Amino acid sequence: MSNTDTTVDESQAEYFDSERLYRIGLYVVMYGLAALFFIPYWRMFQLSVTPMKFISQGGFHLVPPEITFAIWKRYLIEEPIIYQWAFNTLLISSITTFIVLVVDSMIAYSITRLEWPGRSIVLGVIMASFMIPGYVNIIPLYTLINDLGLINSYWAIILPFAAGPLGVFLLVQFFRDIPKELEEAARLDGFSSVRIYTHMILPLSTPILTALGLFVFIWSWNQFLWPLIVLNDDALFTLPIGVVTLRSVNALSPNLIMTSLALASMPLFIVFLLFQDKLISSVQMQAGTG
């Protein structure tokens, strides 16, 4: 009996040792990857507070020999054009996100919950649009926006992306998992299709709508090519375009460039810290829908 107990204890000890080694290795890898991702951001911040006389000398310093916030003061206080660019980007991203959530959810609801001929064909066309590269649509979209007289306006950026196949696909998969018995019970209580959509489907879909909204907001915030094509006024520029403009003007001043990049990336960094749990759950949810 004692030999059996000894064998069990040894096997358990080996199991816990292997489990401990696995966790240690996992933590080492994860923290190592986190450090690799952190280094460029630290380098960006370090150069933004390093005086130009030290940058011109070359070499790498983990900590700047001298720290100055003169450039941060210049952009935040003396030349606050970056506030206008941030407001433009925030406004465009917020409106785009709201419209996408409304339009995509209505399309997904009509495909999954309403009976009408050709639903499968419409869904197939929407899914087939995944195969079309976005660059193919640039010239037709520009022609349409120009004919509508929307060039050099916020709507020129918002309207072409008011709906997307990714959002429709995710919401269709989620809406299909909502039990139909709930909808049947609601109809027995006198609910119309619109009321079922607003009072039942949308509240039950809060997780996927939040995840989709975050992804659309971040994507819209980082847009570069299309705003660059349709915007000509400096006051209407978004942050990505404004940062590139500052980089071209101050090509010989790395600290100026890095300060503008840090200011441009800071809002998204704050958004990620506030909603990181929902972003992680959304990634898991997308994996589950596949």
Automatic annotation (TrEMBL):
Subcellular locations according to the entry: Cell membrane
InterPro entries: MetI-like (IPR000515), MetI-like_sf (IPR035906)
SUPFAM superfamilies, per the entry: MetI-like
ABC transmembrane type-1 domain sequence ranges: 86-274
Keywords: Cell membrane, Membrane, Sugar transport, Transmembrane, Transmembrane helix, Transport
Gene Ontology annotations for the cellular component aspect, listed alphabetically: plasma membrane
Pfam family, one: BPD_transp_1
Topology term for the membrane: Multi-pass membrane protein
GO annotation terms (biological process): transmembrane transport
Bilayer-spanning residue ranges: 21-42, 82-109, 121-142, 154-175, 196-221, 256-275
Annotated CDD domains: TM_PBP2
Similarity-based family: Belongs to the binding-protein-dependent transport system permease family.
Protein name: Binding-protein-dependent transport systems inner membrane component
Organism: Haladaptatus paucihalophilus DX253
